[in-house]
Amino acid sequence: MDVEASLEAPCSVDVLFGHVDDLASYTAWIDLVHRAVPLADSTSGVDEAGRPCWDVELRARLGPFARSKRLRMVRTVHSPERGLVVFERVEVDGREHSPWVLSATVTTGAGENGSRLDMNLHYGGGLWTGGVLERALRDQISAGSDRLLRLVSARP
After folding, report:
1. How confident is the model over 131-147, as pLDDT tens digits?
2. Residue 30 to residues 55, 72, 101, 148: CA-CA distances in angstroms?
């Protein structure tokens, strides 16, 4: 399952990129990311390859039901000069897990000092699939987009 979303923001590329290159900041604007804390795999919160990693809890509500999933996410690509960041599920428990890949690209947008965010969330498993869940994810992304726009608009 792939869910894509885009938005135009009235801020610089640097400001918008600053809200998407650290998973811990996602909790401020998207309810899907219920919790994201840097992992203490080492004292510096990075994996063996020196990449930042987070313990992430995703939570989605479907009517009276809620689904929750904990993931160990690693920032596998971080290219501020290209406006690109990619986070991937990288577990260290020796078991095989369904892939989760979140990519965000920030580019110059329309208007003076505007920017554009294009995001893609790929989930390769079967537990969270189905039209109802995809619609719930899109609803959360829509609400998160509104909150993100308020955040970037409030910055000087």
Report:
1. 666 777 778 888 889 99
2. 16, 18, 16, 8
Residues found in the chain? 156
Q: What CATH number does domain 2-154 carry, 2.40.70.10, 3.30.1340.30, 3.30.530.20, 3.30.230.10?
A: 3.30.530.20
Write down the pTM of the prediction. Answer: 0.87
Tokens of 144: 């998160």
Q: What is the pLDDT of residues 39-68, one digit of tens each?
A: 865 445 677 778 899 999 988 777 787 778
Residue 84 has pLDDT above 90, yes or no: yes
Of 62, 80, 37, nearest to 129 by C-alpha is 62
- Taking Cα atoms as reference points, which of 44, 35, 23 lies closest to residue 121? 23
Query: For residue 94, what are its two tokens?
Result: 């020796």
- Cα–Cα distance, 118 to 150 (Å, whole number): 17
